Amino acid sequence: MIDVLGNGSAPRLVVFDLDGTLYPREAYAEQVLAVIGRMFVELRGATPDQAGAKVAELREAMRTNWSGTSTTSFVRANGFDVGQWLGYRETHLSIADGLEPDENVERELARLREVVPIALLTNNTRASMKAILDKVGVGGFTEVFSAEDTGHTPKPDPGAFRVVLDRFGVAAGDVWSVGDRVDIDIDPLRRLGGSGIAVDGPADLGAAVDHLIGLARPA
């Protein structure tokens, strides 16, 4: 089921999230939790029990408030800087290994890009993003934006969306975001004046695309 959080404007650009949106969140969460626990031990000298407690804290946040839980925000709140987190994640995490091709995702994105430009905005590194897209079998974005592009303003910082808006030269009020976490993928753009559609995962993309095409091509 989708949740439309919009101003009713016809989209001039649609920005997609990656993790949990173009592939199921279940393929992401446990891998990331394991890597974060390892990072606390190796980079902060935490004991396994201490690291386990941090992982349990993040797992509970994911369970009770998936929409508002950002792993990047979590590690930053625990003293790791963005570069440190990205470097460690790049070395120790390979989400793509657990993914399968999904023809439906590419089909739905292809339907939408016939009527409006589409972009990808993710907190993944460029290499990780490419590996995931290749494994799922998704391409054709007008532009992609990774952690290297947003620097010290990753989602949920609205600055991540400002990077996208500046690159395309469009007003936020004409842009829609599609993602599985309202607080992370939708609200930062809404704070700039844009709109969004929250999905529970790739199975909801068809409904989201139908809605956006309807706005772009009013009856």
UniProtKB/TrEMBL annotation:
Q: Name one Pfam family in it.
A: Hydrolase
What residue ranges carry the coiled-coil annotation? none
Annotated GO molecular function terms are: phosphoglycolate phosphatase activity
Spell out the InterPro entries in the cross-references: HAD-like_hydrolase_sf, HAD-like_sf, HAD_sf
Tell me which positions the record assigns to the signal sequence: none
Gene Ontology biological-process annotations: DNA repair
Q: What is this protein called?
A: FMN phosphatase YigB (HAD superfamily)
> In which organism is this protein found?
Kutzneria kofuensis
Q: What is the lineage of its organism?
A: Bacteria, Bacillati, Actinomycetota, Actinomycetes, Pseudonocardiales
